Amino acid sequence: MNSYFQKTTHAAPLAVFRIALGLLLFGSIVRFWSKGWIDQLYIQPKYFFSYYGFEFVKPLGEFTYVIFAICAISALLVAIGLYYRAASVLLFLSFTYIELIDKSTYLNHYYFISMICLMMIFLPAHAYFSFDAVRNKKVSADYIPKWCIDSIKVFVCIVYVFAGLAKVNSDWLLEAQPLRIWLPAKNDLPLVGWIFNYTWVAYVFSWAGCLYDLSIPFLLSNKKTRLFAYIAVLIFHVLTAILFPIGMFPYIMIATALIFFSAEFHKKIIERLARLIRIPKNVLALNKAYAFNSATTSKVLIIAFVLFLCVQVVLPMRHLIYPGELFWTEQGYRFSWRVMLMEKAGSAQFIVKDSEGKAVAVDNTKFLTALQEKMMSTQPDMILQYAHMLRDYYAGLGFKSPQVYVDSYVTLNGRLGKPLIDSKIDLAKETDTFSHKPWILSFNNEIAGF
Which of 44, 72, 330, 404 has its CA 20 to 30 A from that of 139? Predict the structure, then answer.
């Protein structure tokens, strides 16, 4: 282990990764802003679903544009390696703050980006081919500790492997769900759309997706299979981008996969960029190894990264401690790399009563956007949060000790709708914790798998 942690490698792969990540995030923020989604998702809503433990993260109203601007500028600074440490901290904080404002907008790839940005704060990604390296010779280096690059590779492997393991379930492999629902909806695509009407295509996509996720990190890690694996990455994520509206994620994963290529490959990319912007070659040939402030700092960072990666292994398995069907209860579902595994739709009708006999049927559109209502109706923790909001709202209108009940029906992967929440339970009295929620009704079915 000591021998491994003393190894160095060329800094070009980390520099290319820094540039790609920064530019893609900058483009993503610009795209988000230009489509009017900042106003639609973070300013217009009257209520926001906070994450448990992060209730202190509040919406900022019109100042949301400021935090998006900070995020975009810091992403650009990270890309060019200018004031890198401060910029990487701001990028992580601003992006993660935006992510935590409202649970309704949760996506796995937002979490992926937050974790990558957190890692980048502590990695010497500015040591090579950056403005900081030109401005400060103490920072500049063309060799860095090998573990700095390997830690990103390991994290990406964890993401892919758990995404693949999550697909080893009976709905995905034996029923081709939810792709049997989604693919026919794409039959209007030019030239190839007609093929999505065939059930066997959904099975091919399901099995191929599972095998891809489980094998691709290992194929990328092997020099002999790396090129073919990267071609598979391109095909897989381009198809994903065409078929499903998941934003910049496919392009971020295409760029991330480059980290598995050799240092020589990345050096050629840097050299071409240098010629493009007319940087002399001697600026890139430093023959100097990056040094952390002290040996203690290096050891602390290594321990921190090992612990971080261990957490990333344990977190996706936390659902095993909860009873019931994971896709139904969603206890332990988030932050576990379960990507596009279910089609869940439902309705939730709330009734608010008080001790004096008052009762009112709640119009959800009065409080929630269409997206928020859609997401809330199928996720028990969000149903509870909304019930608490209604309790407080109607208490303010004069209801004494408001009671909140819900009639909720949910359909999962094409099954008939079933009640999700016990309609006899007063949700106003229930509390949100990491414990199992007994007021979630049984699924009375089984989706076998991990």
Answer: 72
Q: In whole angstroms, what is the distance from residue 172 CA to residue 206 CA? A: 6
CB-based contacts of 54-63 (< 8 A; 24+ apart in sequence)? 54/100, 57/97, 57/100, 57/101, 58/101, 59/101, 59/102, 60/101
Q: Which residue has the tokens 């937002």?
A: 110
Chain mean position to CA 379: 18
Length of the chain: 450
* Residue-wise pLDDT tens digits, 405-450: 999 999 999 999 999 999 999 999 999 999 999 999 999 888 998 8
- Give the span between the Cα atoms of 262 and 16, in whole angstroms: 12
DSSP string, 223-258: TTTHHHHHHHHHHHHHHHHHHS--TTHHHHHHHHGG
Q: In angstroms, rounded to a whole number, what is the distance separating the alpha carbons of residues 82 and 143?
A: 19
CA–CA dist 181, 347 (Å, integer): 19
Distance CA 161, CA 167 (A): 10
Give me the percent of the chain exceeding a pLDDT of 90: 84
C-alpha closest to that of 258 among 18, 25, 88, 95: 18
pLDDT at 68: 97
User: Residues 165, 169, 172, 174: is their CA dihedral positive or negative?
Assistant: positive
Neighbours of 81 (CB within 10 A): 25
Residue 281 has pLDDT above 90, yes or no: no
Q: List pLDDT tens digits, range 319-378.
A: 999 999 999 999 999 999 998 899 999 999 999 999 888 899 999 999 999 999 999 999
Cα gap 148→151, rounded to integer Å: 6
